[in-house]
C-alpha cells in the first residue's frame, strides 16, 4: 500500500469547492478521499483555530461546533473508572487466538467508553513483546505481528463502530521501560517493517481512518514523536488516514513533532507544551497545519463524533453481557502448559483440595499503570474454587506465600550498629556511588523513607547502611526492598536482592514494585547486613527505600495442608506494570520454594501462574500440571475454576515463547537489553520471538502457539496451491477431534521461505480456532497473500520466487504436516 496523504493548500481549496485538483497535484486515492464536511469545515478555519485544534484547545473552537476529544485508556477496560468491566490484559487477549472474540471485546469497550462520556479510547495496545524483561509485556499482544495485527484489527473496527475513535499504541519499537523516555533503539529497517510496523499495517489496512500514538523511544537517533521517517512510514507506506498523537511526556520538541508529522500535538499533562502561536509563527508550514487539522476533523466525522455526541456519563455501564464476555475471554486465554497423568481436570472423585498462595483478595487482576482497571465486585480464585467444588469437597486454604508484595519493615530491635546501638548506621554521599567522604552519617531505627532522610542532600545522592541483624526464627527468611532508584541488600557477604525501580509505585497504581529475595538464617546467629542505594535511577525528583522482611515462613503450614489433601492448587504471581522492568526470570520471593515443597508431599500438584508472561520453572518436572492464567480481570477466579474442574476446555495458546533460562531469546546481553548508556541494540533484527529460537537452534521451555486441551486432535491431508495471477497461496488441512470430549484447538499455519529470501526458518501465516465435538472433523482453508510471504528489502516488499514449505500444526515447534509449494 502506497497512499499519498499530504494535501497541499491548493488541493484543499479544490476539494472544498468541489473542483478536481490539477493534473499531477498530490492527492488521496478515491478510497482515501476525506469526508466533504471535514474539508468544508477546514476551509472555514483560521490559522489560529487550526493551531487550537492541534493543541487540543477545544474551548477556543466552540463557535465551530467541533466536539472536544475526551480520552481514556482502554486496553483492558476503562482505566480510572468505576462501574466498568475489567477485561483480561492485552497479552491474554492475544492468547485467545480468536479474532471474533476480540472483536466482541472491541464492541464492548466502545460501548462502555461512550456510556462513560468518552469519544477517544486509547487502545488497543499492539506493541511487540521482544523480551520477557519488559514490564509492559502484558500490554502487548505478543511476539508475532500477524497475530497482534489480526486481533488488533478486529478490536479497532468494532470499537469504532460505536462512534468512538480508537488510538493504536505505541508506534514504534517500544520494548522496554528502562530509560524509556530517551533510550535510542537501534533497529534495522527490515525489523521495523516486518516486526514492529507490521501489526499496525494490518490494523490500518482494515481501519485506515483511526489514530496512532507515537512511542517514547528514539528510533535510530530520533525521537519517534519527531521522526519524519516514521511518520512517512505510518502515513504513506502503511496508509494511515487518521491522526497521530504523542504518548504522555514523549519527545522534547512538540513544535518539531508537528512539523515532522504529529497531528494532535497537545495530548496529555506534563512534558513540553506547544506555546500559543508556536505553530503559526512560520516555523511549521501552513500545508502541514492543514494536513494535521484535516486528519483530526476527518477522523472525527468518519467515526461519528459530530453526528453522535457523547452524553453525560452513567454510573454503571458494565452489563451482564460484558461480564459474561470477560469470563469467556479469560477462559479462552487460559493456557494449559503441561498436564501429566491427566491431573486436570480435577476428578469427580476428589474429596479434599488444598488451595495455596495469593488466591484470595491478594490475587492480581491486572497490570499496574495505564492498563489497570478496577475490577469492582469480583469473585476471587479461592471463592470460585470453593463454589465450584461444592459441599462434597473439603477445600483448605493456606497462604503459603504472600506473593509479590513489599514486606513489613525490619524492626530496630533486631538491628545493631557496629557500636552496639539499636538500628543501622547510614552514610550519605553526593553522586550516584556511595564512595568518598560522606556528606553525613546517621544512626536510624531501620530503612523506611519516601523523602530525603537527611537535610542538605544534592539532587543525585547515594547511601550505605550497615550493621548486624539477629534472627529470631530458624529457616527461610524473605526480604524485600521497595525503592525509587537502585538498591542492593547483602547479608553475610551474599547479595540477596539487587535491582532498580524508577518508582515505588507508578502513579496510576495500584500495585507496589518491590524487589524480593530469600536467605536461610538461624535464630540467635547474628549476621552482617549492608544496604546500598542511589536515587540516580529514580523518576525525576523521587527517592525512597523500605527494607522489609518476613522472618517466619508460611510454607510449612501450606505443606501440612497439601500433605493431607487429594490435590493441591498453588497460585503464584508477579507484579508488572508501567515504569518498571523485570530484572529476573524467577518468580519473586519464596514462591519457587513453596511450589517445590508442596510438590514434594502431594502427587497431584497443580501450579497456576498468574503472571504477565514467562517465568523460570525449576520445579517443572516435579508438578503434574501448570496453568498460565495471565491477569484475567474480573474473571480471574471464575475462569480458573471453570478450567480446573473441566467445565471449559483451556483453549488459550501462548502468544510469546517461554524460555528455559534468561540467557535465551533476544535481549539476553547488556547491549541488547537494557543497552549501553543511552543506546540499545536490536541486533537480532527481525528475528524476534520464535523466529530467534528457530534461527539460533534454541529449545524453549514452551514454544509460541503452545497450549494443551482436555481432548486430543489430529491433523492431516494438507494441500497447497499458489495462484500467480492473484498472488495468493491457498492451504487446506483437516482437523479431527480424536478424543472423547468436546474441545477447542488452534490450527496454526507457518511458511518456510526459500533461502534466497534471507528469512527466518518459519513465520506464522495463518491461524484458526475451532471447537469440535468428539469424533468430528472439519476442513480448514487458508488464503495467504503475497505480502505475508514477502520480505522487506531495499525499501520495498519483495516476494522471492522458489520453493516454500508450508507447515500446519498447533505450535511453532509442533508441526506434524507439511507440503512444499512453488511460488513465482
Characterization of this structure:
The chain has 824 residues and is of the alpha/beta class. Among the domains are: 320-404 and 555-578 and 587-670, Rossmann fold; 408-550, Jelly Rolls; 713-823, Sandwich (Immunoglobulin-like). It contains 17 helices and 36 strands. The strands form 8 sheets. Strands 13, 14, 15, 17, 19, 20 and 22 form a 7-stranded antiparallel beta sheet that branches. Helix 1 (9-17) crosses helix 2 (36-44), helix 3 packs across helix 11 and helix 5 packs antiparallel against helix 12 (320-333). The longest helix has 17 residues, at 99-115. The chain is globular. It starts with 8 loop residues before the first helix and ends with a strand.
Question: What keyword list fits this structure?
Answer:
seven-stranded antiparallel sheet, about 800 residues, Jelly Rolls, disordered N terminus, Immunoglobulin-like, 17 helices, six-stranded mixed sheet, single chain, Rossmann fold, alpha/beta, about 20% helix
The total of helices stands at 17
- The CATH architecture designation of the domain at 320-404 and 555-578 and 587-670 is 3-Layer(aba) Sandwich
CATH class division of the domain at 320-404 and 555-578 and 587-670: Alpha Beta
Q: Return Rg in Å.
A: 28 Å
Shape: globular
The counted number of beta strands is 36
| Average pLDDT figure | 94
Uncertain stretches: 1-31
Residue fraction in strands: 15-25%
Reported by name, the CATH topology of the domain at 320-404 and 555-578 and 587-670 is Rossmann fold
Please give the share of residues in helix. Answer: 10-25%
Could you tell me how far the N terminus lies from the C terminus, measured between alpha carbons in angstroms?
A: 21 Å
Sheet of most strands:
7 strands, antiparallel
Structural class: alpha/beta
Query: How would you name the CATH homologous superfamily of the domain at 320-404 and 555-578 and 587-670?
Result: Glycoside hydrolase family 3 C-terminal domain
